[in-house]
Amino acid sequence: MSRPIDDTHRLDLTSWVESAQEPGTDFPIQNLPYGVFRAPGDSRDHIGVAIGDKILDLARCRYQLLLKDLRGDVQFVSAADTLNPLMDLGVNHWQSLRNRISALLTEPGMKSRVEPCLFEADEVEMRLPAAIGDYTDFYASLEHATHIGSLFRPDNPLLPNYKWIPIGYHGRSSSVVVSGTPIRRPSGQRKGPDDHEPHFEPCQMLDYELELGFFVGGPGNKLGDPIAIEDAENHIFGVCLLNDWSARDLQAWEYQPLGPFLAKSFATSISPWVVTLEALAPYRCAPRSRPAGDPEPLSYLQVGDGSQAGLDLELEVDLVTGRMRRREEGPHRVSQSRFRSMYWTMSQMLTHHASNGCNMRTGDLLGSGTISGEERDAMGCLLEITRRGAEPLVLADGDERSMLEDGDEVILTGRCAREGFATIGFGECRGRIQSAGAHG
């Protein structure tokens, strides 16, 4: 069930936080994403809400009795040090807290009471938003699957199951890191086409993958109980940007017969802000239409006529190389793509994950898989863009990239826009590559 559009989405709604009205801000009053931060000199993490260039500290709001009209359990979780307790409460509580935060930041009479609860965003340390118990990554873009398949199976790029089942693999939650965390180049076994035996050495084909992550909440389902497709979105708290870093050469040697392993588990970056499904209500859209000849989803994956299970989200990948940084040059835009083109929706991915009775838990993270379009400038990873290195990407300064080099920084951004509604963003998901021997 999609969340409703209400007064918190009104285009004419403004905040007394002046930066929330600045053109181009990711965090107007209509957004109100949640994150976890640590203030200077503090030893404890707090839940925060992004508003313009400020962060509203929910723990301080509670201590100042600004949340006293909410239920006790909502007040209690507002002082937690992760989003997990809030994620666990469910849709009705998420909506009531959003309404209260919106009122605190819009009513002029609240300014003097709420201002002491605000921090400058550029003065705090952002932390992982949740304690992530499990992480699963899907493969939900038909274009990405086709592009990758054509590199290895030109005559038969898609495997027979792709249009029937949301494909995924279990990732490693312990190596999920928040945006800005350096990414050390992994080492592992790799075997080139002319090698007689594999070698253990640093990865030579390091890649990014542009993805959307979404967090389970609500709470999850009991072991043995599936999640029905019509109930799936009640178990989704919100979404973030996700970069599924990939060591392509290690993956090529290790992935058969059981799929990704060490080539994926060394790091996954996520943005610090979780944009709720409540905030995204105006930007929902119909799922992608399936062309004639494609199979209809099996009954447990059918979203129904008139469904707004899709999401109209534009994503962008930018790259800053070491040379650009030294010259103080701006980033190079690598690609732009849209999430609405995904073959499988978030609700279908979650429903399929739980269809065998797998118990999903609050704070579990699911990745969409690489988000790609048809054209080269809409592809979501370098493996696609460069056709496995055969056609290097030419940057604005004349430099070339077949894969990522040490010092390269990948920046993911995302924005939702619709006429009659405010444009909202997701902040950034950044990661800079360090050499295999680097520390710190």
Short description:
The protein has helices spanning 58-63, 72-77, 84-89, 91-106, 111-114, 142-152, 248-254, 322-326, 346-354, 382-385, and strands at 34-38, 46-51, 54-57, 118-120, 125-127, 135-138, 168-170, 176-178, 183-184, 187-190, 199-202, 206-207, 210-216, 236-243, 246-247, 268-270, 275-276, 284-285, 310-311, 314-320, 332-338, 365-367, 393-394, 400-401, 409-416, 424-434.
Explain how this protein is built.
This protein is of the alpha+beta class. The protein folds into two domains: 7-127, SH3 type barrels, CATH 2.30.30.230; 135-434, Fumarylacetoacetase-like, C-terminal domain (Fumarylacetoacetate hydrolase, domain 2, Alpha-Beta Complex), CATH 3.90.850.10. 17% of the residues lie in helices and 25% in strands. The chain has ten helices and 26 strands. The chain has helices at 58-63, 72-77, 84-89, 91-106, 111-114, 142-152, 248-254, 322-326, 346-354, 382-385; strands at residues 34-38, 46-51, 54-57, 118-120, 125-127, 135-138, 168-170, 176-178, 183-184, 187-190, 199-202, 206-207, 210-216, 236-243, 246-247, 268-270, 275-276, 284-285, 310-311, 314-320, 332-338, 365-367, 393-394, 400-401, 409-416, 424-434. The strands form seven sheets. Strands 6, 7, 8, 13, 14, 16, 17 and 22 form an eight-stranded mixed β-sheet that branches. Strands 4-3-2-1-5 form a five-stranded antiparallel β-sheet. Strand 10 (187-190) and strand 11 (199-202) form a beta hairpin. It is globular, with a radius of gyration of 22 Å. The termini are far apart.
Which CATH architecture of the largest domain would you pick? Alpha-Beta Complex
Strand tally: 26
Q: Terminal Cα separation, in Å?
A: 44 Å
Shape designation: globular
Average pLDDT figure: 96
Structural class: alpha+beta
Tell me the name of the CATH homologous superfamily of the largest domain.
Fumarylacetoacetase-like, C-terminal domain
What count of helical segments does DSSP give?
10
Number of domains: 2
User: Rounded to an integer, what's the Rg over CA atoms?
Assistant: 22 Å
- Outline the low-pLDDT stretches: none
Helix content: 10-25%
Largest sheet: 8 strands, mixed
* Name of the level-1 CATH class of the largest domain: Alpha Beta
Strand content: 15-25%
- Could you tell me the CATH topology label of the largest domain: Fumarylacetoacetate hydrolase, domain 2
